[in-house]
Amino acid sequence: MRLLAVASLEEDVKLAKPVYNDNGQILISSGIPLTNLMIKRLNQLGISFVYIEDENTEDIIIRPAITESTRREAMGLMKQTFEFVHTDQTLTKRFSFDKVEKQFRSVIRDVIDQVNGHKEAVSMLSEVCAHDNYILNHSLNVTIYALALSMKMKNITKKQLEEIGLGAMLHDVGKLLIPLDILMKPSRLTNEEYAIIKKHTEYGFELLRREHSIPLTAAHCAFQHHERLNGKGYPRGLIGNEIHLYGKIIGIADVYDAVTSNRVYRQAMLPHEGLEILYAGSGTEFDSEMIEAFRKAIVIYPNGLSVHLHDGRRGVVLRQNPAVSDRPVLLILEENLHKVEKPYELDMTKDLTVLISETDTTLLGKKVF
Ligand SMILES: [Fe+2]
Fold first, then answer.
1. From ligand 1's centre to the CA of 227, what distance in Å?
2. What would the pLDDT profile of 207-225 be if each residue is shown by its tens digit?
């Protein structure tokens, strides 16, 4: 299978993975030739990339970071909790976290175990989902990224991982108190609207800190995930180590998921492009050591991505090298614009002179290679 931009899809191409909604229902099936109507639907759903069937790369396997059942369980639990907040906008009542605390802890442990047991770095491109609830999906992705990053850092304890997991799952809970028309506005926000959106950090903190079963550190994840090292973040403009460790970690995971996710109003970036955004702020906005840890934690060139090498060869990412996230194993299909007779594997950790110069998610004609 190959990874392709929806913008370049053509009729008769077959999806290699179905497109699901949040409830796990199939919206568009795999294996059947796409019609123009289905392509239009993919665009309407705001999906930027899909996996398509491709005879050259049949044996590429995409392994999700967490199992489908854990994803669904976590989403269901957050939905249940978040819905309660949504109907109680007074900010004076508690949102009875005690009832779901045990379930949260158990699902966070499952996520920790699965991310830990996943030999490869994590990639969320394997989940081609049309999300009707962006906040839920974003919260779960941020949790997975924040945990994967934390696991690459030294001296993080199991207890800390659990707190980071809970803090990440609930980091945007304050957004439920922001009017939907502002939150989902597809066009540019006015200064006033942006000021209202920024309030979600304080709202989240207020909601969470009242809950005795939630550690205060998790409340600070909501409060601090938009703070930046150079003091240019919000709501308080904290500087450097005034920002809690968890706030820094979740801030990185949050930005990365925001830019690499499908949104109706803009195209998602590919992982290496999302990483560039983080690098641009490394040392100024974000802790540079954490950015390095994050680079090791995520899949930079996902399986199925077409790549051009600096030496004129082209191929597709076949599988990951667990220890080196930016040097995967490729299947070479083309040399100097000529198809090779027999596609062959190239392990980028064994030949360090090889560099990826470009990635390609377009479909030229019916065949890329
Ligand atoms: Fe946020």
1. 10
2. 899 888 899 999 999 999 9
